[in-house]
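On to our target:
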Amino acid sequence: MIGQGLIKSIGAIASGAWTGQKAMIVTDSNVAPLYLDSCRTSLLQAGIAVCATVIPAGEQSKNLKTLSELYTAFHGAGLSRTDGVVALGGGVVGDLAGFAAATYLRGLPLLQVPTTLLAQVDSAIGGKTGIDMPFGKNMVGAFYPPCAVAIDPETLKTLSPHHLAAGMAEVIKYGCILDAGLFAAIEDAAIDRQNIIQRCAGLKANVVARDEHDTGQRMLLNFGHTIGHAVEKATGFDRYSHGEAVAMGMVAAVRIGEALGVTSTGVQERLINVLEMWKLPVELPLPPAEVLPALSADKKQLGGKIHFVLLTEMGQALLHQLTIKELATIAAEVCYHA
């Protein structure tokens, strides 16, 4: 569901999503002062008892320690298998709270209420949940579709330009792999935020409906993410936002595609121009010896090879199998120049 002011209707949505009379809101220290009270009030008005857990904002919270703290909070609140979890926040909250809901009592009803552009167009849709581990990003998790996703574009008004840009990296990704018209509209600055959300949410929902467990076409949604995740891991998950890392990864993927003779001339220039329009980074920040070893932790390895996403033309993508060594070698050759 997408609508202005929808966050004030969370109680009615939750009432239709589960039969229990309790809800645990999981949010973070940035979002809680902005939207926790209105979300809590809406649930209470719907006759649902409310508890809340506020985690520290940032990727560093996506770990086993915070997950364990959520389990303890769920137990303390007396949640049963008919009570629900409300994930109120960005991608970190959605991934972490979603995984806790997927695994506590073997599964609690989950309502995703994304409050960042990145979460609204991508991470809250499709049921991927999880946490980071020292050896890689999102390495432990579950496919766990929520009962509902309630997207309120009004929440974007409180986002900083930095966080909006991070979300735009995922929007740009959709244009690159699935929708050349969307990419052209971004180039021309001819699309508003609600239109962006509706368009990207529709694209992702259509892909996920055909490939829920990420074994085929859904892998295309990982464009820019293989090297992007390696950058995040190599920099300790705290130097760059996910969107910034994906931006670097997309440019690297286009350069690799050109070197392999897959990606058409001109795609790289258009992509870099749009990313720079949004003040997103386009060059990898560390030498190959620091970034490329992290590729070995990529979840998309199958049979010793990575299904690496390449563009053919703008709006068209394919999967290309490469070994870790092949990918690292070609990335070192073509991805490190000004």
